[in-house]
């Protein structure tokens, strides 16, 4: 069972549809007891960083999330909230990955970064298994994460930024795998394989 962390930040329907296509059981919830029964987690998100963190706080999920010991995949805003802070609303993040989110410079290009783009792998990882350099993924974001020691792959739009990140059991992708056709499905399948191997459970 995959827990989809519901913190009122959008795009849950597209994530659940992707898991249905992969025949994976899931539970959309913000109840910690229910989430504790899941083998892994998807942390989706479309919206504003400050509002999203406020929702996590209202549901008493911040401390719980920081102490998760099972695989978690943050998607788009969900990935961004894994970092320490964001310029968006001067918001704090979960602080799992060091760094601050910054806004793309609108003087240098159209903001948000929206559409299909590739990424450049800089570290090998099972999350990226079978994904080729010419594979495209769908991005929609105005803020970008810094490239650092926890970056698995980078993308470039106006400036290079972290496209895929990992620290221990926390994974994140700036793009939307659930909207990225076969390439996104492959990445989600890779994450589900990680979850299955993490605890040798059926999902």
CATH topology: Rossmann fold
Kindly report the name of the CATH homologous superfamily.
Class I glutamine amidotransferase (GATase) domain
Oligomer: single chain
Proper CATH architecture: 3-Layer(aba) Sandwich
- Major pleated sheet: 8 strands, mixed
Question: What is the element string, with H for helices and E for strands?
Answer: EHEHEHHEHEEEEEEEEEEH
List the total number of helices: 6
| Beta-strand fraction estimate | 25-35%
Quickly name the level 1 CATH class: Alpha Beta
Q: Could you walk me through the main structural features you see in this protein, from its secondary elements to its overall organization?
A:
With 203 residues, the protein is of the alpha/beta class. It has one domain: Class I glutamine amidotransferase (GATase) domain (Rossmann fold). 26% of the residues lie in helices and 31% in strands. It is built from 6 helices and 14 strands. Strand 12 and strand 13 form a beta hairpin. The longest helix is centred in the C-terminal third of the chain and has 19 residues.
């Amino acid at each position: 069972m995959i827990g989809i962390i519901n913190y009122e930040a959008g795009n849950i329907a597209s994530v659940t549809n992707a898991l249905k296509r992969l025949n994976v059981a899931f539970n959309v919830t913000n109840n910690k007891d229910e989430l504790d029964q899941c083998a892994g987690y998807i942390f989706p998100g479309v919206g504003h960083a400050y509002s999203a963190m406020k929702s996590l706080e209202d549901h008493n999920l911040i401390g719980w999330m920081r102490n998760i010991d099972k695989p978690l995949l943050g998607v788009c805003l969900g990935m961004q909230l894994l970092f320490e802070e964001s310029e968006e609303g001067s918001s704090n993040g979960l602080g799992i990955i060091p760094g601050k989110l910054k806004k793309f410079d609108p003087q240098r290009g159209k903001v948000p970064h929206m559409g299909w783009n590739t990424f450049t792998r800089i570290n090998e990882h099972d999350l990226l298994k079978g994904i080729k350099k010419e594979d495209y993924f769908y991005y929609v974001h105005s803020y970008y994460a810094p490239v650092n020691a926890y970056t698995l792959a980078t993308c470039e739009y106006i400036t290079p930024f972290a496209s895929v990140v990992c620290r221990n059991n926390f994974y994140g992708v700036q793009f939307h795998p659930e909207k990225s056709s076969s390439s996104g499905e492959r990445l989600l399948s890779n994450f589900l394989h990680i979850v299955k191997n993490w605890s040798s459970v059926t999902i």
